[in-house]
Design brief:
Elements (H helix, E strand, L loop, with lengths): L32 H10 L2 H8 L2
Length: 54
C-alpha cells in the first residue's frame, strides 16, 4: 500500500464493559442517553460517580 497515509484502529472492546462476554450486537442500557446527560448536568460530580458505580 504505497499511498497509505494513515491507518486508524478504533476498538469497541471498552464500549460494553458492563457485559462479561461481548458479542457482535447492539445492547440495551438501563438508562436513556438524554436522561444520563440530564443527570450529569444537574448533579454534583460526587453524586454522579455514586450513581454510575452501582
Amino acid at each position: 500500500m504505497p499511498n497509505l497515509k494513515s491507518f486508524i484502529h478504533v476498538s469497541t472492546a471498552f464500549a460494553n464493559c458492563h457485559v462479561k462476554h461481548i458479542e457482535e450486537r447492539f445492547y440495551s442500557y438501563p438508562i436513556k442517553h438524554k436522561d444520563l446527560m440530564t443527570l450529569i448536568r444537574n448533579l454534583p460530580e460526587n453524586q454522579v460517580e455514586k450513581k454510575i458505580s452501582t
